[in-house]
Amino acid sequence: MEVKTDVAIIGAGPAGSTLAALLAQRGIRVLLIDRDSFPRDKVCGEFLSYDALPILDRLDITAKLDRHGAPSITRCRVVGRKTNYEFELPSAARGVSRMLLDDLLFRRALSLGAEDRSGWTATRVTSTQVDIERGSEKATVSAKVIVGAWGRWGRFDTQLGRGFIRDQRHRNFGFKRHYRARGPSDLHSIELYSFRRGYLGVSPVEGGITNICGLVHSTRLSGLKGKWDAFVSSIRAEEKPLDRLYAAHDPAQHQFLSSEPVIFRARSAVERGIIMIGDASGVIDPLTGSGMAMGIQSALLAAPTVSSLLGTSDRRVAEDAYRAAHHQFFASRIRWSRQVAKLLSHPALLESAMRLVRNPKPGHVFLASTRASAEDVDQIASAWF
Asked: 18 by DSSP, 3-state: which?
């Protein structure tokens, strides 16, 4: 069976669904492909940075976050062995689960006219076609533009021969689990905890749930074979703040979720004619809390390029322009995040740094260096809305 459309988007996470909504809003035919059905869970820190909210406001998503009780987060706290470091956010962020946010964005895209291909697995991709299957059903999607929104790691990265997949030195793995606090909890702060070669982020989300999500270098997982309970026990034994954290919470999910490899290497925003967005186009370190925001922003940044490719634009010129815009908008934020990650994954060094710095200025520099300014977001929004 052959299906024809203007744009086929592989992956219906925050980036893919946002782009589908933006294009469908303009009357462009969009087919949204995802192997999962919605709602579904994902490994994520579940912290939605404030610089994504102006875009979600324009898509009528923010009010729905309010109705579902997604908490407003106004403060960041870095928890060390004996010292804490805190600073205020310049604007309120939101704590929201991927179960909720992805579903809201996906449904919004469909309500605007995007075609639903959730539950279908993409098996092969070129610059103009995607083969998909669901059980015994098979189809070929032909599109004028293909968009890769499959996240940090997908089968197509291997199929396309992307350079970062060969990197063995910078492989990390994410893990998360939802919990309920045993006593009163701070619903307006996100916390960061350090351990050797990794760190944790703790964020409140809707429904009185606390999300505890970590990133760890692959060298720490040798021999564990996916036994995340054993790994968490090991870092609790190493770091007293982590032991206190877990002791104050009871699991609200049956088991841990874990990610495919997270590789912090540069990747192209266009690969063999496929427009990349979200983590498929570049991965910022999760400690920044900017991953979902960058995915949403990259969709808005890509929308004019995708639209122009449907017309008479010179494809090479359009692709090069998108590469340049993507690099300008995201590259320095990604590089900067890696430097902060080195500090956060060395508990003793982090403790020393926090004892020396007692004012909020470094925190504000951290935020400014890893996020888009209001002016940046307004600039890319005004190019589309």
From this structure: helix
Whole-angstrom distance, CA of residue 320 vs CA of residue 316: 6
The pLDDT tens digits of the residues spanning 90-138 come to: 999 999 999 999 999 999 999 999 999 999 999 999 999 999 999 999 9
What are the DSSP E strand ranges found in 136-208?
A: 137-148, 171-181, 189-195, 198-205
| pTM of this prediction exceeds 0.85 | yes
Phi, psi angles (nearest 5°) of residue 49: -65, 150
The dihedral of CA 210, 81, 88, 326: what is its sign? negative
The letter for the amino acid at 280 is A
Give tens-digit pLDDT for 206-220: 999 999 999 999 999
Dist. CA 111–CA 108, nearest whole Å: 5
Q: Delineate the domains of the chain, giving CATH numbers in brackets.
A: 2-167+262-382 (3.50.50.60)
Instruction: Match 């991965």 to its residue by tokens.
Output: 283
